[in-house]
């Protein structure tokens, strides 16, 4: 290992906050100062002790600061500024890493695909694992059975969910095209996906949770419809740990002008007032639930929603919609 490589490795140790090494370095620096003072000065031993301890403390503080600075710099890398935002410096992306794989068959297994080029490979009931750290390419692949793609990259997950949600919202509100683009460091955008909605989008219902709270002496969920009339509005039962949760909602018709609709909640044998305490006891930060409904053409919709713990909110709970799922064949171009 070269000199600079050893220096980088040492800084990486500091970045991860290895306190023992920082103490040893700080103590060593102090001892060096002590030895020099004893050899080249006539100072009182008590004063020498105070000086080398002070030096050790200053060195220790400097090492801790350096470690935190490096950690913050790695966590929030700065990039060139384009327009009103900074383009992130994706330092973990390895565009020059490529592994050639030809004619291989993967059956009932997980395959990491970062930095690999697959040529004439067969995937039978395979799970493709993409960490989004390097490009991947497939030439003349064969996919059989069930094909699954998954990632542990949180940024990729968030982008995928956001894009799918926006695609559905565009279908509901009159968009003609849906595009996904890639921006370079200069801010130039290259289109990756461009789809045209196959038919003129129709107006749709959009049932959302508003808040979880109290009405008179009852506790439950308030919902509202931000779109066209919704029919057969129901909330499916779900679980909190081992306890069933039921939100009584069986609304034949819900229109925007009606405002909020109250749906009483029950947690096991208890009323909805126990929900926050039961979530704390179960060490559960959020619960996912589903609101189902139809439009006037009998198309089915699902609002995938969350109840989340938030001590800053009244009652300790927030509610929000994650996405709307639509069953309406022929709406989007394949």
Note down, in words, how this protein is organized.
The chain has 334 residues and is of the alpha/beta class. It has 4 domains: 73 residues; 52 residues, no CATH class; 43 residues, no CATH class; 121 residues. It has 5 helices and 24 strands. Strands 14, 15, 17, 18, 20 and 21 form a 6-stranded antiparallel β-sheet that branches. Strands 19-16-22-23-24 form a 5-stranded antiparallel β-sheet. Strands 3-6-9 form a 3-stranded parallel β-sheet, with no helix packed on it. The two termini are 53 Å apart.
Short précis:
It contains five helices and 24 strands.
Main attributes?
single chain; 334 residues; alpha/beta; five-stranded antiparallel β-sheet; 5 helices; 28% helix
Q: How many structural domains does the protein architecture include? A: 4
Oligomer: single chain
Instruction: State the helical fraction.
Output: 25-40%
**Rounded radius of gyration (Å):** 29 Å
The dominant shape is: extended
Largest sheet: 6 strands, antiparallel
Helix count, DSSP H or I runs of 4 or more residues: 5
Order of helices and strands: HHHEEEEEEEEEEEHEEEEEEEEEEHEEE
């Amino acid at each position: 290992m070269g000199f600079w490589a050893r220096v980088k490795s040492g800084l990486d140790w500091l970045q991860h906050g290895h306190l023992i090494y920082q103490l040893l370095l700080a103590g060593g620096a102090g001892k060096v100062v002590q030895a020099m003072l004893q050899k080249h000065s006539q100072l009182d031993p008590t004063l020498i002790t105070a000086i080398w301890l002070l030096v050790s403390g200053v060195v220790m503080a400097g090492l801790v600061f350096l470690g935190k600075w490096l950690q913050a710099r790695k966590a929030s890398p700065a990039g060139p500024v384009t327009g009103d935002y900074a383009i992130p410096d994706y330092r973990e992306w390895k565009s020059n890493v490529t592994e050639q794989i030809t004619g291989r068959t993967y059956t009932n297994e997980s395959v990491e695909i970062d930095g690999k080029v697959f040529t004439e490979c067969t995937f039978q009931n395979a799970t493709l694992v993409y960490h989004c750290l390097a490009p991947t390419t497939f030439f003349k692949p064969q996919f059989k059975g069930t094909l699954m793609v998954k990632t542990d990259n949180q940024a990729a997950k968030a982008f995928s969910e956001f894009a799918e949600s926006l695609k559905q919202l565009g279908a509901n509100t009159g968009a003609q095209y849906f595009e996904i683009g890639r921006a370079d460091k200069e801010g130039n955008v290259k289109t990756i996906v461009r789809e045209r909605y196959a038919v003129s989008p129709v107006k749709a219902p959009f049932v959302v949770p508003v808040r979880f709270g109290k009405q008179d002496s009852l506790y439950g969920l308030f919902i509202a419809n931000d779109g066209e009339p919704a029919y057969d509005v129901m909330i499916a039962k779900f679980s909190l740990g081992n306890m069933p949760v039921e939100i009584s909602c069986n609304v034949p018709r819900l229109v925007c002008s009606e405002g909020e609709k109250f749906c009483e909640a029950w947690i096991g044998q208890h009323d909805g007032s126990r929900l926050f305490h039961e979530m704390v006891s179960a060490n559960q930060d959020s619960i996912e639930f589903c609101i189902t409904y139809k439009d006037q053409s009998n198309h089915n919709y699902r609002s995938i929603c969350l109840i989340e713990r938030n001590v800053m909110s009244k009652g300790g709970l927030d509610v929000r919609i994650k996405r709307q799922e639509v069953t309406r064949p022929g709406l989007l171009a394949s």
